[in-house]
Amino acid sequence: MTLRGFKSFASSTTLRLEPGITCVVGPNGSGKSNVVDALAWVMGEQGAKSLRGGKMEDVIFAGTAGRPALGRAEVVLTIDNTDGALPIEYSEVTISRTMFRNGGSEYAINGQGCRLLDVQELLSDSGIGREMHVIVGQGQLDAVLSATPEDRRGFIEEAAGVLKHRKRKEKALRK
Ligand code: ATP
Ligand code: MG
């Protein structure tokens, strides 16, 4: 995963996430949670609150005493797809998301511009969909335990990969 201008990562920063457990260690405020936010963001997260910000533009490097703010944030995630977990004919899949300070936002899959929906559909059968239940934040376990039956059904539907079809159906019915 490469971050450019995302939150505290003003300079291009690449992290290699190997199979198994990766630990991110550092002092308070050094950007550990920002790494997790970047992962959620590049996979299509739409909630500013889930990204611990007030508005979506808050993901763009806001500047520090010694460094001016940037005009855009970009995260590029390259996934090893040799096991074919993603329904696409490539052994390596690159998803990128760019956001500009004027509000514009772009997504690409393997360098080809696409819609958010395309990213969501690509990921939705892999168990790492938009609802991000693979990212368990502080306090989230409590939320799952105290979820309403409807919300709990949502978790299960996402895990089972039927959410995509329900969303498509809802969209078709709206037309
Ligand atoms: P803790 O151990 O307390 O959980 P952490 O390592 O998880 O800390 P983060 O929350 O990832 O820290 O990073 C917080 C830092 O990121 C703060 O210093 C904050 O100013 C900085 N930050 C967040 N958004 C931006 C932004 N848009 N531009 C510049 N810096 C930012
Ligand atoms: Mg943190």
UniProtKB/TrEMBL annotation:
Q: How does it assemble?
A: Homodimer.
Record localization: Cytoplasm
Q: What does this protein do?
A: Required for chromosome condensation and partitioning.
Domain comment quoted from the record: Contains large globular domains required for ATP hydrolysis at each terminus and a third globular domain forming a flexible hinge near the middle of the molecule. These domains are separated by coiled-coil structures.
Q: What is this protein called?
A: Chromosome partition protein Smc
Superkingdom assignment:
Bacteria
Positions bound to ATP:
27-34
Biological classification of the source: Bacteria, Bacillati, Actinomycetota, Actinomycetes, Jiangellales
Parent-protein start and end of this portion:
1 to 175 of 1178
- Stated family: Belongs to the SMC family.
